[in-house]
Amino acid sequence: MSFFKKLKDKFVNNEETEQVSDKYKDGLTKTRSSFSSKINDLVAKYRKVDEDFFEDLEEILISADVGVSTVMDLIDELKLEVKRQNIKETTQVKEVISEKLVEIYYGDDDEAVEELNLQKDQLSVILFVGVNGVGKTTTIGKLAYKLKEEGKKVVLAAGDTFRAGAIEQLEVWGERAGVDVIKHSAGSDPAAVIFDGIKAAQSRKADVLLCDTAGRLQNKVNLMNELTKVKRVIEKEIPGAPHEVLLVLDATTGQNAMSQAKTFSAATDVSGIVLTKLDGTAKGGIVLAIRNELEIPVKFVGLGEKITDLQSFDAQAFVFGLFADMLEDDDQPAK
Amino acid sequence: MAFEGLADRLQSTIQKIKGKGKVTEQDVKEMTREVRLALLEADVNFKVVKDFIKRIKERAIDQEVMESLTPGQQVIKVVKEELTTLMGGEQSKIAVADRSPTVIMMVGLQGAGKTTTTGKLANLLRKKFNRSPLLVAADVYRPAAINQLQTLGKQLDMPVFSLGTEANPVDIANQAIEQAKNNHNDYVIIDTAGRLHVDNDLMAELQQIKADVKPDEIFLVVDAMTGQDAVNVAESFNEQLDITGVVLTKLDGDTRGGAALSIKAVTDKPIKFAGMGEKLDELEAFHPERMASRILGMGDVLSLIEKAQDNVDEKKAKELEEKMRSASFTFDDFLDQMAQVRSMGPMEDLLGMLPGANKMKGLKNVQFDEKQISHVEAIIQSMTKKERQDPNLMNASRKKRIAKGSGRSVSEVNRLLKQFEEMKKMMKQMTNMQKGKKGKKGKGMNFPFM
């Protein structure tokens, strides 16, 4: 069975997953139309698979923030594949392109959806980290709601004691999601807040504690050390915790996202990524390279400002979203 | 960072063609390929890069580069000149309306840093131009956005106008202007909610505010880390609102900031200010030339030199150089030097400005902890005058005393002594090199154009 058939079977012939992929399609409409219409344009423009074709393809991928080196590797592989399979028509290349993209994302791993690592019978602690303005607090609000809908008891810890209004912002989200927020006053020690958060969550018999932290640029050594300290405090209180360290990345971010992923991982051992603001025109292609190089999977994507706009990340759905136009096009000539 | 600076990479391309005697068109092609890569890695939009490379090629294939003895450096020079021209001249002016108050609208995507920048801009207006701004909380959507601006207003001791989250942003803006007139605020800065450029309803809201308050400035606030999408965002905001300038935020990060170039290229609006930190006084005028260097990965040599000139006492510097040369450098000089360097700003920032600093052996992964510098100071200050002059005096009991006095461990004292010796050696080497022993490649710092 071909790759596209598999995707189609998974998403088109299954009503339950259709809803999910619809969400992706909604959120990614602009992404998809700009990205895959470009690929379609390209395919229509060129009959032959030649140097010009590859050059244009390279630009399309670069414009999706996939990153120059990843793109060049991909193009090299594509060229090899084209030679090997003796592909001459551009329409045949489409499939190889998306196969390769999914392959970059997964590497040699199983193509499993990355679930949150939640403990069965004890408190699970999730630490949120990231640079300023990526949407950490908003994501916590959305995830709190999602987990609560799943029947979990959730507590939030207002660990961003630095930015003006951050505590109040988390409180509003706590109210919206209907969960408790543990806070200290602005300017207090974030590690202390999170320590209290753990204590409170334990005494309230909560299932999950979501810890907010202040946004910080990854080249600020002192602030990164502070984050390591916060993590250490959690480790000390609950062996094996934090059970997840989620790095929140703004899809609008370019190549610097790689540096963010590297440095935050070094400081806090990041276990997953939340890719936010995917409802704009940005493509967030850098997550392919991050997954490939650092083996950090994307666990959630933010697709809007509503409390329900947080979706589990599914790479196939993601790619399906990007390539939906092409898949639909494929159907027509066959009939 | 994952990539090396353009200067470093071009060097290796040059190595290949050295000895050829003449630079061919093919060589130029290869060099511009490196430039293209550097720009793309810096997140400059690929379309902008394409046009740019075309221009560079034309100039580079021209006489000036082909006949130059250092074609590699010539190419960089051409690139830098073109980049600087493209980015435009320095433009940190803010409009002044004929009739007070002057109205400034802050717009941009979510999380770009509008609210923080609003606070910083107000601070700048008061500090530098002696103005009295009114801050307007028109972000009624993001939870606690109003609260954030009010907190900043409190920190700055400046008035903040708000009608809560139930009011319409257009009404808020209108009423704020009235209040500013009554209270004699000569500037009004309207902090609008972050929104996607493709969100038609919210963009229409901005257009309505614009139509009502007729702002003198509309600043698009853009995160310096923005990738390829920067062109779409900037183009769209500019088309719908005809912005008057750009503020680039989070430039204190380690991003190359190619978005700056993309934005300038598609909007042709000046980048006026740059956010350089989280504190309210960390908004600086934007320097196109420095940005060009940064995008190319050549380090912010100019900024460094300027900082050094501002802070380093010339006479002391001369003395120091003499001491370095004669290797009579003592712990007292070390303390002195540290104090001077520290007055220039955080160590990591300074290092980041040095081109090739990340390539220097031993410096590659050095992370400077300001606290550690304080520890070093404490250790030195716990030494006697004699010990500072002559580290050879050190013995176990002296070390123990110093450790006790500084509250550090003996092993830390030992480490410092060892580092100090190594540093002295290195200084000798470096000053010797300056005296003209060139040819030892790869050692010391490599400043292009210096």
UniProtKB/TrEMBL annotation, chain A:
The record, for Pfam families, names: SRP54, SRP54_N
Positions of the SRP54-type proteins GTP-binding domain = 297-310
Single annotated GO MF: GTPase activity
Q: Which InterPro entries match?
A: AAA+_ATPase (IPR003593), P-loop_NTPase (IPR027417), Signal_recog_particl_SRP54_hlx (IPR013822), SR_rcpt_FtsY (IPR004390), SRP/SRP_N (IPR036225), SRP54_GTPase_dom (IPR000897), SRP54_N_sf (IPR042101)
Q: What keywords tag this UniProt record?
A: Cell membrane, Cytoplasm, GTP-binding, Hydrolase, Membrane, Nucleotide-binding, Receptor
Q: Where in the cell is it found?
A: Cell membrane; Cytoplasm
Task: Return the SMART domains for the record.
Answer: AAA, SRP54, SRP54_N
Topology within the bilayer? Peripheral membrane protein
Enzyme Commission identifier(s): 3.6.5.4
Under the heading PROSITE patterns, the entry gives:
SRP54
Reactions catalysed, semicolon-separated, are: GTP + H2O = GDP + phosphate + H(+)
Name the enzyme's class.
hydrolase
- Domain of life the protein comes from: Bacteria
Q: Which GO terms describe its cellular component?
A: cytoplasm; plasma membrane
GO biological processes: SRP-dependent cotranslational protein targeting to membrane
Q: Where does GTP bind?
A: 130-137, 212-216, 276-279
Is Protease tagged as a keyword? Answer: no
Role description: Involved in targeting and insertion of nascent membrane proteins into the cytoplasmic membrane. Acts as a receptor for the complex formed by the signal recognition particle (SRP) and the ribosome-nascent chain (RNC).
Record note on quaternary structure:
Part of the signal recognition particle protein translocation system, which is composed of SRP and FtsY.
Q: Which family does it belong to?
A: Belongs to the GTP-binding SRP family. FtsY subfamily.
Q: What is this protein called?
A: Signal recognition particle receptor FtsY
Q: What is the lineage of its organism?
A: Bacteria, Bacillati, Bacillota, Bacilli, Bacillales
Gene this protein is translated from: ftsY
Automatic annotation (TrEMBL), chain B:
> What GO terms fall under cellular component here?
signal recognition particle
* Reaction catalyzed: GTP + H2O = GDP + phosphate + H(+)
Per its UniProt record, what PROSITE patterns does this chain match? SRP54
Cellular localization per UniProt: Cytoplasm
Q: Where is this region: Disordered?
A: 430-450
Matching Gene3D superfamilies: P-loop containing nucleotide triphosphate hydrolases, Signal recognition particle SRP54, nucleotide-binding domain, Signal recognition particle, SRP54 subunit, M-domain
| A GO BP entry | SRP-dependent cotranslational protein targeting to membrane
Q: Which domain of life is it from?
A: Bacteria
According to the UniProt record, what class of enzyme is this?
hydrolase
Name the predominant localization: cytoplasm
Q: Which SUPFAM superfamilies match?
A: P-loop containing nucleoside triphosphate hydrolases, Signal peptide-binding domain
Provide this UniProt record's keywords sorted from A to Z.
Answer: Cytoplasm, GTP-binding, Hydrolase, Nucleotide-binding, Ribonucleoprotein, RNA-binding, Signal recognition particle
Task: Please report the stretch or stretches of sequence annotated as the SRP54-type proteins GTP-binding domain.
Answer: 270-283
Record-annotated residues binding GTP? Answer: 108-115, 191-195, 249-252
Q: Does the keyword Heme apply?
A: no
Q: Which GO terms describe its molecular function?
A: 7S RNA binding; GTP binding; GTPase activity
The record ties this protein, via SMART domains, to: AAA, SRP54, SRP54_N
Q: Subunit structure of this entry? A: Part of the signal recognition particle protein translocation system, which is composed of SRP and FtsY.
**NCBIfam families xrefs:** ffh
Instruction: Give the family, as the similarity comment puts it.
Output: Belongs to the GTP-binding SRP family. SRP54 subfamily.
Read off the PANTHER family from this record.
SIGNAL RECOGNITION PARTICLE 54K PROTEIN SRP54, SIGNAL RECOGNITION PARTICLE SUBUNIT SRP54
Q: Protein name, please?
A: Signal recognition particle protein
Species assigned in the record: Aquibacillus halophilus
